[in-house]
Design goal:
With 276 residues, the protein is α+β, with helices and mostly antiparallel strands. It is built from 6 helices and 13 strands. It has a single domain, classed as 4-Layer Sandwich (Penicillin V Acylase, Chain A). A hairpin with a 2-residue loop joins strand 12 and strand 13. This is Transport and golgi organization 2 homolog.
């Protein structure tokens, strides 16, 4: 499970404003092997963490390329999973390595959505010269992908903007921070966004989560109903912040759990200019 908040404004009024801000949590079993974020691809042009689970190596939940392609994935909460379904992490990895634009890619994915368990996929083309395009497709929602209008969005393990209480609560905290982003030093902005992602206040009751998750979610409901999930063997393992300014300068900060220990974390930051 994961949660993502993002805001985009292709033409920010203030010179100090960011045109794209994303804050995301990856929730996963602590024992599932993965690599910390790093550059990869033919010319080291893609930045992401990588799943190293046997049979699903090379998939990812969130990544960005130096060409301005950005992909982000969440699973759709469903009581029954098909063990024979294709690995969802390939959806982001394939987008980051394809020449297709975001809308065309999601249209292709929509014809193959039945091959996967439930998912939500954000695909974006961030171009300083052509303008930014951000699109969304969920294989448990509309049959066609949609182009998003500039604004602020929240995505968890239901369809985009489904008003789960934890999503609404986290989005409110996110908005409070990003509304000050043009006056905050970058380090302070990242720190405050990380604070949002690590909020463990359970937002209960929430009949929407219970109805969708049914018996699967009941044992972990008190923990799962928070922005930051913290269970004994499962929970938030990675926080990611992506900032893109008006000139196309990208700051990518990843805070990752080490050694399956919720008290041990490592933070790394990467910066580069979009090549588009």
């Amino acid at each position: 499970m994961c949660i993502i908040f993002f805001k985009f404004d292709p033409h920010p009024v203030s010179k100090n404003a960011y045109r794209f801000i994303l804050a995301a949590n990856r929730d996963e079993f602590y024992h599932r092997p993965s690599k910390l974020a790093g550059f990869w691809g033919t010319n080291n042009e893609i930045l992401s963490g990588l799943d190293m689970e046997e049979g699903k190596e090379g998939g990812t939940w969130l990544g960005i390329s130096t060409q301005g392609k950005l992909g982000a994935l969440t699973n759709y909460l469903q009581p029954q999973q098909d063990p024979e379904a294709r690995g969802r992490g390939e959806l982001v990895a394939h987008f980051l390595t394809t020449d297709m634009d975001s809308l065309s890619y999601l249209k292709k994915v929509s014809t193959e959505g039945h091959l996967y368990n439930g998912f939500n996929l954000i695909a974006a083309d961030l171009s300083t010269t052509k303008g930014d395009l951000v699109c969304y497709y969920g294989n448990r929602g509309r049959p066609e992908p949609i182009v998003l209008t500039p604004g602020t969005y929240g995505l968890s393990n239901a369809l985009l903007e489904t008003p789960w209480r934890k999503l609404c609560f986290g989005k409110k905290l996110f908005l409070e921070v990003v509304e000050q982003s043009h006056v905050l030093p970058k380090d302070a902005l990242v720190t405050q966004l990380l604070d949002v992602l690590n909020n463990e206040e359970a937002q209960l009751p929430d009949p929407a989560i219970e109805d969708q998750g049914q018996e699967y979610v009941q044992p972990i409901l008190s923990k799962y109903a928070a922005v930051c999930v913290r269970c004994p063997n499962y929970g938030t393992r990675t926080n990611t912040i992506i900032l893109v300014d008006a000139d196309g300068h990208v700051t990518f900060t990843e805070r990752s759990m080490l050694n399956k220990d919720p008290s041990c974390w490592e933070t790394n930051t990467y910066e580069f200019m979009l090549q588009s």
